[in-house]
Amino acid sequence: GNHFLFSYFSFRMIYTKPQTLKPSQLPPYFLLLQCDSKENFLFHRRSDVLMMTPWFAPIVWEGTYNSEILNEQFRRRNVTVGLTVFAIKKYTVFLNKFLETAETYFMVGHRVNYYIFTDRPEEVPKVPLKEGRNVVVLQVQNYPRWQEISMRRMELINSFSQQRFINEVSYLVCVDVDMRFNDQVGVEILSNLFGTLHPHFYAAERQSFTYERRPASQAYVPRDEGDFYYAGGFFGGTVMEVYKLTKKCHEAMMVDKAKGIEAIWQDESYLNKYFVYYKPTKILSPEYLWDDDLGRPEILKKIRFLALPKNHAAIRNK
Ligand code: 2GW
Ligand code: MN
User: Fold this and answer.
1) Would the CA dihedral through 147, 153, 159, 160 be positive or negative?
2) CA nearest to 127, candidates 106, 90, 98
3) Which residues of the chain have pLDDT under 70?
């Protein structure tokens, strides 16, 4: 009867099987058994970009993954993702576009908490949210120096990770606010610890990376070390890994501060130092943090998160 059809795992997942070998490399034994089409060899492959680091961290480019499989896996775990963003002083003007576009493109179909750190809670716009998505406004103090505003993000993300994020989300994604989402940013980015290739340096030589080069700074990276130059405006991982990263970066900043040193690119420099010695387990291509001042090169099949032009005089008062 029908009871023989009972399946404890009542799922179906239909897609083209990944292939381990090029058809020309198949040993005779496998050739005899082949009946599937051989067109999709090494499923979804890019040969024009690096897809894997020497420490086996995937580099996420469009065309290298199947989002259907990934979405199913993360939905099954009912994962909640926290997106942290800072809007201090006039930077609240960026929130509306940021949140609106995040509703369209960020982690669609998954649970999301937006954590908005601001000194002006009354200026946080009321953006309509889809089911399973929440805005949490976290009131924080303002710092007079912009460098401090940017750098204190490490300290704040760290202390809220311990107090709050650890109880509410599995992963944290920490980004700049002067940005808009422009295409899908989904669970393909999630991993224990991830960073993003900086759009200005993704193809640059090690020597030209703008790491902190003064040995006196805790962010110092010698000229013969380092893999990539990562962007300060997009990193993340599990709450535990982000906790560890932000703790180290904040502590390194405090050591420097006591000596009257501030790294050349503030928090970005400390983040880069951290990633030299604590390698990310996944790396996002510059699709995930792009600046149209750089044009749109062939290798970019999607532009997912885009820097907004800033009116430096009016917005920043640098
Ligand atoms: C920043 C610079 C000058 C004047 C004001 C501010 C400012 C920054 C502010 O008034 N209010 C505020 O909330 N911020 C936050 O800091 C906001 O979240 C913003 O996205 C972030 C970094 O500042 P931003 O986006 O103006 O600087 P970028 O786009 O040049 O950022 C890169 O370099 C920074 C360090 O200099 C960080 O590493 C950042 O992650 C990088 O993308
Ligand atoms: Mn920015």
Assistant:
1) positive
2) 98
3) 1-3, 33-44, 312-318
Rounded-to-integer distance, Cα 81 and Cα 84, Å: 10
Would you call 241 a catalytic residue per the annotation? no
Residue whose tokens read 């509410």: 168
Nearest to 299 by CA among 63, 28, 16, 42: 63
Q: Distance from first CA to last CA of the chain, Å, rounded?
A: 76
Three-class SS state of 93 = helix
Q: Which token pair is 18?
A: 């990944």
Distances (CA, A) of 66 to 13, 243, 287, 299: 12, 29, 16, 18
CA distance 282 to 289: 15
In angstroms, what is the span from residue 20 Cα to ligand 2's centroid? 41
Helices (H), the chain: 28-33, 67-76, 95-105, 146-160, 166-168, 239-258, 267-277
Residue 204 burial (CB count, 10 A): 14
Backbone angles phi, psi at 195, to 5 degrees: -130, 175
- H/E/C letters for each residue in 238-290? EHHHHHHHHHHHHHHHHHHHHCCCCCCCCHHHHHHHHHHHCCCCEEECHHHCE
Residue type, 95: L
Helix locations, 106-179, DSSP H? 146-160, 166-168
Please report the pLDDT score of residue 26 as a whole number.
Answer: 85
Cβ atoms of 75 and 67 closer than 8 Å: no
Nearest residue (CA) to ligand 1, atom 11: 88
Q: What is the pLDDT of residues 18-45, one digit of tens each?
A: 888 887 888 888 877 665 555 555 666 8
Pocket test for ligand 1, best of 150, 246, 253 (most atoms within 8 A of CB): 150
Query: Which residue type is seen at 153?
Result: R
Domains of the chain, earliest start first = 59-316 (3.90.550.10)
**Residue with structure tokens 């005779």?**
28
CA of 176 to the centre of ligand 1 (A): 7
